[in-house]
Amino acid sequence: MKTKETLFLLLCFILSTEAFSQKGPEWLKDAVIYHIYPSSFQDSDGNGIGDLKGIHSRLDYIRSIGVNTIWLSPIFSSEFKDGGYDITVLFIGGERDAQMTAELRSYNDEAIQLLGELHNPLEYLKMGDAYALCSSYEGMPISLIEAIGVGCIPVCTPVGGIVDVVHNGENGFLSDGIGEESYYKTVKRFLSLTDVQLKDMKQKALATYGPFSMYECARNYVRLFEKGIKK
Fold first, then answer.
1. d(Cα 35, Cα 41) in Å, to the nearest integer?
2. Are 45 and 152 spatial neighbours (Cβ–Cβ below 8 Å)?
3. Least confident stretch, 19-28, 81-90, 136-145
């Protein structure tokens, strides 16, 4: 037993030694690194969001404080990628807007999947963390009911019957309006959930499904039928 422990400790020591002995590039030895998060560093056009021109305008200052290396957070066309979020978006449903569909396909991004119309959307909702519906007009979306039925958290615009089902911040999220910026901020609220909060909200979303279950719908139809007979 002692021999095994000794071998294990020796192995750990060897691995640790090898890890620390790995050499980086020569320039790294004398590097004075300055980390820049582009969107919050320097705004050059007054829209409140940092940009590359803003960074360029501050290079002389950065050099003056002794920095010789800049670590720039990645910049992508997607705001969520730029924010460091690892997201895969699945578009499920008919492709009614040819121009939008063509634009999405042009990104050639594995994180964007256009699945079209499916006969088994529930299987995807079960695997997803959020059900995203950004719409300017809705009645009562069947897909929303399907989503909460499997505990998929709704992140929606406040239109139609959605507001009767989704209680903002409790079993899902509602944006302030139907604009892009408002919805973007709402999605970020969802992404800020901790694992514990995510699990709790999934349970609350699932609990919301009760009145929409087949059992409850059948009971309501029977009550309506009986009420009609009595009249």
1. 10
2. no
3. 19-28
